[in-house]
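Researcher: Dear colleague, please comment on this protein.
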Amino acid sequence: MEKIITFGEIMLRLTPPEYNKIDQTNTFMANYGGGEANVAVSLSHFGHKTYFMSKLPPNILGDAAIQHLRGYGVNTDYVVRGSTTLGIYFLETGFGGRPSKVIYNRKHSAITRIEKEEFNFEEIFSDATWFHVSGISLALGEQVREVLMECLEYCQKYNVTVSFDFNYRSKLWTIEEASESYKNVIPYVDVVFSSYFDCNTILGIEANESIKNLMEKRVDLFRKVIKKYDIKYIFGTDRIVYSATENSLAGYCISETIEKYTDPIRFNIYDRIGGGDAFASGIIHGLIKDFDAPDYALDFGLVTSVLKHTIYGDVCVLKCEDILDYMQNAGNKGVDR
């Protein structure tokens, strides 16, 4: 039976209304979100059985975060309680030529106090089918990294498929600090969400400078990563920013033998936060349907991300039918190169 586990932090998000700046507002709109939690919510809406693994404070804020997850069908049996602080981030939503800004207040949040002894890894992973995590969780401290590495050991033990979104955040740590941790995780991973920058800078894989075409250089670099770490697929998106409220996205999938791209989709933005998580959830959904046919997963993931940009909040609450309707009506098809 299917069992998808995501591991990470869920936070309280505070956003000024009406595109206001933080220093001009007296009220904030509140909702909950976090990379891996967003993926769990989206996959739950696609009909999958999802579990979220984390640590939250035993207070009303922690209760509200759990209520948020359960309200969207995510199982929270693997959320332990302890410490006193829930991570918070402030989002100043951009408009037109003014970009969005994020301010984190999460340094001493409950998940940074997480401990391996708080989990029964055998129970959690012995019947799991998929595990998803991102580089944001790696940035949250040594204790979080220790728990994550234990998760990955059990994934390897029970042949659980692992997906990893690089999601590097310079606000949380430096490239030098991140590099070792990423290199420790990547050998356990089957499906990667990554960019040229991630592989070249964080993993330290050298590009072939004799290749002048940028797309060909990226494919060459990705295939070095795939070969070195025995990765099945690398997925990602290319974004063009016309303004804070209008972008375009195109998706790509690279494997040892496959090189696929979608046509770009241009769209208006209501809320950009969670777009990458929506892309990851759409890819995971597609690969669960057929792991050896990434074309469908790539199309489904891109459209999920595009449509998430039209929804307020961190999470994508669309059903499969919503994604499929867009795919059929817009005619967005993956292309071989």
In short: The first helix runs from residue 35 to 45. The two ends are 36 Å apart (CA to CA). The chain has eleven helices and 15 strands.
